Amino acid sequence: MPGSLVGMTRPSAPRARRRRGSDIPQLHQLQRLGQQVGNRAVGRLADTATLPTRRTMEGRLTGGRWFRRSKDQRRIFKWLDRWHATIAGTTPAIKMHFLEQFRALVVAYRDQKAAKQTSTTRATHISGLNTLLFEIDTVRTQVRAAYDEQDDLPSLTDLGGIQYLPDLATYGAAEPLGQGGLNTTYKVKVDTAGTEMVFKKEKDEDEAFGRHRGTPAGIPRFNPNQTGRAVATYRMAQLLGVDDVVPMTYYATYNGHDGQIMGLVQGVEGYRYAEMTNHRPEHMPDKRRIYWLDLICGQVDRHAANFMLGTDGTGQMTGRAFAIDNDLAFGEHYGIDAKKGTSRRTDRNSSLDINGKQASELAITPELAERIIRLARSEALVRGALNGLLTTGEIDATINRLTNLASYLIRRLSKRDSIIGWDP
Questions:
Q1: 177 three-state secondary structure
Q2: Tens digits of residue pLDDT in 350-387
Q3: What is the pLDDT of residue 418?
Q4: How many CA atoms lie within 13 A of 4 on its CB side?
Q5: How far apart are CA 30 and CA 40, in angstroms?
Q6: Quick one: which H or E segment has residue 36?
Q7: 155, CA 20 to 30 Å: which among 17, 85, 132, 263?
Q8: Region for residue 99 given its phi and psi (left: phi exceeds 0; alpha: psi -120 to 50; beta: otherwise)
Q9: Is 7 inside any structural domain?
Q10: Are 141 and 100 in contact (CB under 8 A)?
């Protein structure tokens, strides 16, 4: 054995104390976050109902006898350990997501047992699992009350309808801003007051099809719907509360050509700066939020030229960063691995060649983690916000990415890992 010799012993190194979930500063932040609204409802949970411990559950399944634990039983015990070590002290949205996944796991195992030939041992297992399901449902009912009390997601009314601006040519001539990889952008006026925004014409064909990551992500060659994808990105930013880093984006026409209109950001494109400057610490809070939005939207075209770094009236850097050119997103085949947080193709088993940033690389604040998890539980809201902008398959893929990212965040938290502090 490495590190030992026959006939000799070596003093073992002192074991490092494993940090309890309550020792993690980020967990305290999540606990405080859960108490900001509905504090009394959250506080009642500890006094009324909780899940059994691993030891209690082992006794129920064995009737006090030793037995060989199956893989499914070990998973149930591990989930109970996670609940008591970390999840029980977090926010209602995290608990709700955890409990629903845990319940599905227990139901699947119970039904698998019930389908087999009956026996005394199996009957004991099923009885113990039914008791656990009753306890999960009891806790879930109480958590739901606190969850509903804390709901702060915007409604579809808050988002406003999908806006279509009239033909902008009536307000003056367009000024070319530059040629991008897919099409040219123009500075245009959008009202009689001379307010300026950026217009990008919709194309019938993606001329770069096959030469960028949108192709394996599932973005079609013909009628690529660049405008719908850009507007959908802005709507997802609104849902996540990060619309301050994505310019307002709407449908518009110019001189009879359909396209998108985007808010004009005061700043410079990121590629104009050296790499170290482009990733200065003051830009990272905004960039992290953009990268998380990109993961949810399946954005495959985020590079230095698609960032704007904010400047003030004198040309000085403000430390802000903004996401522009958001129309290469929402591919139907862009997925997220719920365990690793890595992006992957869903049309076949392969290493991903469309990936951007990975969740495992990114820092996240407790507030944004909570928002992602809460949004993952609001499928009807997400579908309503994206309806008319994307295909049903693309919306389904978005829901799947959201759900898997929520599972990934909870998995990291339940493994007592920090959910903030990773940097690209």
A1: strand
A2: 554 565 678 888 888 888 988 999 999 999 999 999 99
A3: 53
A4: 8
A5: 16
A6: none
A7: 263
A8: alpha
A9: no
A10: no
Domain for residue 2, yes or no?
Answer: no
Determine contact, residues 169/193, Cβ cutoff 8 Å. no
- Kindly report which listed range (221-235, 334-348, 364-378, 398-412) carries the lowest average pLDDT score: 334-348
Q: Is residue 125 over pLDDT 60?
A: yes
Over 70: is that where the pLDDT of 421 sits? no
Provide the domain limits for residue 210: 157-232+247-263
pLDDT of residue 36: 46
Query: What phi and psi, each to the nearest 5 degrees, are found at residue 201?
Result: -75, 140
pLDDT, residue 414, reads 72
Look at residue 415 in the predicted model and tell me its pLDDT: 67
Q: Do residues 221 and 284 share a domain?
A: no
Shared domain check, 164 and 124: no
Assess contact for 395 and 239: CB atoms under 8 A.
no
Phi, psi at 349, each rounded to 5°: -80, 110
Distance of alpha carbon 162 from the chain centroid? 23
CB atoms closer than 10 angstroms to residue 81: 14
Helices marked H in 115-166 — which ranges? 120-150, 156-159
- HSE-CB of 350 using CA atoms within 13 angstroms: 12
- Cβ atoms 80, 51 nearer than 8 A: yes
Task: Report whether 196 contacts 264 (CB < 8 A).
Answer: yes
Model pTM score: 0.81
Number of folded domains that form the chain: 3
Q: For residue 281, what are the contacts with CB-CB under 8 A and spacing of at least 6?
A: none
Nearest CA among 247, 226, 284, 297 for reference residue 420: 284
DSSP state of 305: G
Cβ atoms 51, 81 nearer than 8 A = no
Helix, strand, coil abundance in the chain, percent, nearest 5 = 50, 15, 40
Of 152, 157, 155, give the one whose Cα is nearest residue 374.
152
Mean pLDDT of the 147-172 span: 89
How far, in Å, are 20, 23, 85 from residue 17 at the CA level? 9, 12, 15
